[in-house]
Amino acid sequence: MSQSDLLTQLMESLRCLPGVGQKSAQRMAYHLLERNRDGGLRLAAALQEGLQRIGHCALCRDFTEQERCPICASSARDGSLLCVVETPADRLVIEQATGYRGLYFILQGRLSPLDGIGPRELGLDRLARRLAEGEVREMIIATNPTVEGEATAHYLAQLARQFEVKPSRLAHGVPIGGELEYVDRGTLAHAFGSRTDMP
Amino acid sequence: MSQSDLLTQLMESLRCLPGVGQKSAQRMAYHLLERNRDGGLRLAAALQEGLQRIGHCALCRDFTEQERCPICASSARDGSLLCVVETPADRLVIEQATGYRGLYFILQGRLSPLDGIGPRELGLDRLARRLAEGEVREMIIATNPTVEGEATAHYLAQLARQFEVKPSRLAHGVPIGGELEYVDRGTLAHAFGSRTDMP
């Protein structure tokens, strides 16, 4: 041991953060000790309080420390639209990028039978009860366009139809501002096949 | 506000870490909430304890929660050798890479008059008292090979000579395993000029 125990412990603990290896942990520990002890102590308090108190919204399964998240609790949102996403980060990016004013349901994952993630783990029983209530008219399925995300979307669309809710899916195609030369083949083939008439 | 207050606060606090922007902070917060709440709570405790209790070693200025760091407190180290480095990270890498068994002095910076960092801020008065005690025979100056690091090295060498201590500097040259084609010109010119006889 050529180093303080507490410092070693601090560096080790920082490695629980994603993308932080030994070298970054070391740099972070020294940075906090040398330049920002107050910020580090605030981070300690935020971690302590956040990780102990943040749970899931009873309606949409998003993270919140309340019984219901601010979106579900809001009376200004349109309850006839329900957007289903895989993760809270997906919900956040849709909220930031679009003018969507409906509600959300967060799966906290995707169907993946090999990993033991089935409909129950994604809270689809709760989603079904919600659809059965009859308020939702359209379910916007915004799972990722990956193999597992597509399988989940297919399953969700069937569920929606059972309750006479209209399922819809985000459009696929060439990203806006992208150059055709750098778009992957699958996307380009899809965009070509689903070309739209110009007005 | 479309997001839990505690979650927003957690994401903001994570940005005190170096190299962590809004997107990484978001990813870290979700990762801890979804997969590693225990690790996050351990991190909170390590930050709290570390940032409050870790101070500086009375002899070498390295970080430690004791009066003296483990290296200064060790009776197995050679007190006649003193290696002067800019930061604790430099001390750590020398300790890991070399078989050095002497002691260290950590400047916690480099001479930089424009930023108001002079000899006093680097603890050079304390270093001078240490050299005056007469135990140190050789001072290995391992500041960075930058303009400021070289100026600091020059100043330190003068200080050493005042107390009849032999100053030495890390060798410069072509890195081992490097290819000449990719070595910068300054290093190559220096290595060429300081070529050594082959045995």
TrEMBL record, chains A, B:
Keyword check for Zinc-finger: yes
SUPFAM superfamilies, sorted: Recombination protein RecR
Keyword rRNA-binding: no
Residue intervals of every C4-type zinc finger in the record: 57-72
Database matches in SMART domains: TOPRIM
Keywords: DNA damage, DNA recombination, DNA repair, Metal-binding, Zinc, Zinc-finger
Domain Toprim positions: 80-175
Biological role: May play a role in DNA repair. It seems to be involved in an RecBC-independent recombinational process of DNA repair. It may act with RecF and RecO.
Family membership: Belongs to the RecR family.
Record protein name field: Recombination protein RecR
Species name: Arenimonas maotaiensis
